[in-house]
Amino acid sequence: MRDLTLTRREEARLTKAYQRVLLGGGFPNPERAGCPGNEILRAFAFRRLGHDQVMDWIDHLGMCTPCFREYTELRKQVVWRRRAAYLSMAAAVIIVILSLGWWRWRSGHQTVITAHNHIVADIRTPLVLRGSQAPGKGPLVFQRGFDDVSFYLPEGSRAGSYEVAIFREQMVEPLTSATGTATMEQGMTAMNVTLDLSRIVPGYYLVGIRLPATDWSYYPMIVK
């Protein structure tokens, strides 16, 4: 139930009742004659008493020190409860604001993984792109951090300088890139490249490889 508010007339009458009790020397009323009882005083203190009863009990407070004291203590409870409610609400708002701020900061600052890993990436046979039904083996698996990758290039790849890059999808800007020099080793074309995957979040990507000024060849990869 929502608390009722006193009218201006009732507030003025209550002020005069306070003055009578505080400045008039008090009204002991040891027999508690005409006292309303705790339930009515509580209803009045919590502003849940109908206006048709308020004026009578205001006059009684001005003539009965025990009821006046009890009412005053009950009003203190009302004030403390409201303060506690406001503080709880303010604390909840602050927690929400701090949580949103942390989440926005966290989403804007990717975790940097500095581990060094050695990866062997054998792309001599076809790798299956996501959604493809063509035969072949699964995607390459890289680790987050700084990956020293030994690539075994497809048969027929010539020796020379190659560009290597990581893409979210084909035909977009690379997320990270590096260069490496391929050499012929025992009939295979191989090269070593260091890829900075320290800021790449785990997920599905493409690794692109090409000779300078040529088109990219894409291979599926997963970053863990």
Short synopsis of the structure:
The protein has helices at 8-23, 38-45, 51-61, 65-108; strands at residues 116-122, 140-142, 146-152, 160-167, 176-185, 188-196, 203-210, 217-223. With 224 residues, the protein is an alpha+beta fold. The chain folds into two domains: 8-106, no CATH class; 116-223, Sandwich (Immunoglobulin-like).
Which series of helices and strands comes N to C?
HHHHEEEEEEEE
Alpha-carbon distance between the two ends:
56 Å
- Given the helix and strand composition, which structural class is it? alpha+beta
Query: What characteristic shape results from the CA principal axes?
Result: rod-shaped
Which CATH first-tier class of the largest domain would you pick? Mainly Beta
